[in-house]
Design brief:
Blueprint (H helix, E strand, L loop, with lengths): L3 E5 L4 H12 L3 E6 L2 H6 L18 E5 L6 H8 L2 E4 L6 H6 L1 H22 L4 E7 L12 E4 L2 E4 L21 H20 L2 E7 L1 E3 L11 H11 L3 E4 L6 E6 H13 L6 E4 L6 E3 H12 L5 E4 L14 H6 L9 H19 L1
Parallel strand pairs: 1-2, 1-4, 2-3, 4-5, 5-8, 8-12, 9-11, 10-14
Antiparallel strand pairs: 6-7, 11-13
Helix pairs in contact: 1-8, 3-5, 5-6, 7-9, 7-11, 9-11
The structure holds nicotinamide-adenine-dinucleotide (NAD).
Protein name: UDP-glucose 4-epimerase
Family: Belongs to the NAD(P)-dependent epimerase/dehydratase family.
InterPro entries: Epimerase_deHydtase, NAD(P)-bd_dom_sf
Length: 349
């Protein structure tokens, strides 16, 4: 019998790519999304249009629903696995709405875990955590400018931070705390109640399905400004800060592999790794090559608890899932984003 997987936040960037990955591999999907991203960021950020494609697809049963609704538990009870992506996803936005951030990210996740524990305890579960659970810890290391980016002074960090980095006793933003709390709850449910849950601490996830705003999804936001000619603000570090970027489709492929072969309670750092790392300054050149447009920018004050340098050490995830690999390089990622944004801008004009 065909297995059915629940994707929470199914309209979102990562959720919509998970829906696509699952149906391409023979699964049925139940998707739940309340389009709350539109409330958090305004119309520009609303992900609703991502679901138009699959409303007529028999393999996807989409519900406009909040994960905090009581009806949601009935869905949890009926499926064979879960990918939980629904969240308030922005660390700067969380500073303005700490209570809503907590309510979605912590209470929403705990409610989901309770529904799994009491009604469907044997199914695998993927939790989308974040490198923001480490708070400012990456900033406690020393970096030097090498070309247009920072690099760590300590060579042992070359391939990035692994899962042993400390998560507490530093500044996080409310988002970092709500995700760390949910991350620990998921780990606890795996250890205490034997739930087959895996925790993925993500770097920068992106792709054409993103509905970017200044406070979330920097890559498509930068491309959007390059296409429209608006000026970008760079918050701190003069653009030398480094991020590691992964296409949401590559991540969705990893999540499917986890559902098929779960490692309960394991925590993984996952992003683009060293190969898909890029500084903001380096991204300006790539965006210019891909779009043909120059990005105008000015400098602004550094954001709270913003990482100076982050690369995810992918050793553990590769050890546990040796057949998984990143298939989208940086150029392909920025090309995919540019194609999607050009289409959207054409439709609007
Ligand atoms: N995109 C990244 O770079 C990144 C990095 C680290 C972690 N993450 C994590 O991955 C997950 C998904 O991120 P994303 O980039 O796809 O975000 P997204 O905003 O594109 O998707 C989240 C979706 O969840 C929905 N949602 C929000 N609250 C909801 C609720 N209460 N009930 C039902 N649906 C709700 C939103 O409408 C949205 O469609 C989040 O948990 C986020 O913290 C993302």
């Amino acid at each position: 019998m065909t297995e059915t997987i629940l994707v929470t936040g199914g309209a979102g960037l990562i959720g919509s790519m998970c829906c696509e990955e699952l149906i391409e591999n023979g699964y049925n999907v139940v998707s739940v999304d309340n389009y709350g991203r539109g409330d958090i960021f305004g119309d520009e950020g609303n992900t609703e249009s991502n679901v138009t494609e699959y409303l007529d697809d028999d393999r996807i049963d989409h519900h406009q629903m909040d994960i905090r609704d009581d009806d949601f538990d009935e869905i949890v009870a009926s499926v064979d696995g879960i990918i939980h992506t629904a969240a308030q996803p922005s660390h700067p936005r969380s500073i303005e709405i700490p209570y809503e951030d907590f309510d979605i990210n912590v209470r929403g996740t705990l409610k989901l875990l309770e529904a799994v524990r009491t009604q469907n305890p044997d199914i695998p579960l993927v939790f989308t955590s974040t490198n923001k659970v480490y708070g400012e810890m990456p900033n406690y290391f020393s970096y030097e400018k090498v070309g247009d980016r920072f690099e760590p002074v300590d060579d042992t960090l070359w391939n990035g931070f692994d899962e042993s980095l400390r998560i507490d006793q530093n500044k996080h933003t409310p988002f970092g705390v709500s995700k760390a709390s949910a991350d620990l709850y998921v780990q606890e449910y795996a250890r205490m109640y034997d739930i087959k849950a895996g925790i993925f601490r993500l770097g920068c996830v992106t792709g054409g399905a993103a509905h970017a705003v200044e406070l979330h999804n920097w890559e498509p936001y930068f491309v959007k400004l390059a296409l429209t000619g608006e000026e970008l603000s760079i918050y701190g570090y003069e653009g030398y800060q480094v991020r590691d970027v992964i296409h949401a489709k590559d991540l969705a492929n990893l999540f499917r592999r986890y559902l098929e072969s779960p490692s309960p309670g394991q925590v993984y750092n996952v992003g683009g790794g060293r190969k898909n790392s890029i500084s903001l300054r380096e991204s300006f050149d790539l965006i210019e090559e891909v779009t043909g447009n120059t990005l105008e920018y000015s400098h602004a004050e550094q954001r709270e608890a913003d990482h100076q340098w982050w690369i995810s050490d992918l050793s553990k995830v590769h050890r546990h899932y040796p057949d998984w690999e990143i298939t989208h390089g940086l150029r392909e990622i920025f090309e995919d984003i540019t194609k999607a944004l050009r289409k959207n801008l054409d439709e609007v004009s």
